[in-house]
Amino acid sequence: MNLFDMRGGWSGFEAFLYSHIVADGIEPLYDQMVGFFFSDLPEGCRFLDLGCGGGHVSMRIARANPQAKVTGVDLSENQIRRARGRTAGISNLNFETGDAMNLKLAGDSFDSALSVASIKHWPDPAKGVGEMRRVVGPGRQIWVLEANSEATDAECAQFCKYWRYVLPGTRFIITDYFKLFVARQGLNMKQLEDVMKTAGLQNVHIQRLPDMPLIMAVGEK
């Protein structure tokens, strides 16, 4: 991938930019999401974070649930190195390099799975979600959060306020970049619902995150 085409894995340069400008800046949003959705996993829960990037979400889930076992998987070796360095010492968390299109993980080996802002990078999102379905147990939930391709200008501007190292007077450029080259390559609510159902998930629910250019889906195996 490159900064204008979201398909594919991160290079070292792109991983560096994303980690320091975006991911480090939106840490309050990660805190809110994990606190609301993933702060009370049952004891012994085996949790998969697919497309984990630099480990920002995996780290928070593992810390919030020390009784759970969290595994982060990402295609980018650069991102996995960053994740391991960021989370050294967290005993219930591990990271692996892997392809969402063909996970080297056993079927029914996880109790829940999550993907955050990753499926727009996949060549076949439904196939990747199908892999998530394969590796979770029967009746278990799969969560997907992605950029909303129909996000409003206000939602994009609100999200980009969190980005770091933006020069004064240029934030409108960053907002336009995000809307045109990131959000537009995401999915709308209907498309995300179709991906989840094509992957074989049941009881699919979709929602927009308030005031953010993001949508979240949850379904059951």
- Total helix count? 8
Mean pLDDT: 94
Radius of gyration over alpha carbons?
16 Å
- List the uncertain runs: none
**Strand elements, count:** 7
CATH class: Alpha Beta
Task: Please tell me what the overall shape is.
Answer: globular
Which H/E pattern describes the elements? HHEHEHEEHEHHHEE
Write out the strand line-up for the largest beta sheet, numbering strands in chain order.
Answer: 3-2-1-4-5-7-6
The tally of domains stands at 1
The fold-level CATH name is Rossmann fold
> What about the largest sheet?
7 strands, mixed
- How much of the sequence lies in strands comes to 15-25%
Descriptive report:
The chain has a 7-stranded mixed sheet with strand order 3-2-1-4-5-7-6, with helices on both faces. It starts with 11 loop residues before the first helix and ends with a strand. The protein is globular, with a radius of gyration of 16 Å. The mean pLDDT is 94. The relative contact order is 0.14. By secondary structure, it is of the alpha/beta class. The chain has a single domain, classed as 3-Layer(aba) Sandwich (Rossmann fold), CATH 3.40.50. Helix 6 crosses helix 7. It is 38% helix and 22% strand. It has 8 helices and 7 strands. Strand 1, helix 3 and strand 2 form a beta-alpha-beta unit.
Can you give me a brief rundown of this structure?
This protein is of the alpha/beta class and 221 residues long. The chain has helices at residues 12-23, 27-37, 56-64, 77-86, 125-135, 153-160, 171-182, 189-198, and strands at 46-50, 69-74, 93-97, 110-116, 136-147, 202-208, 214-220.
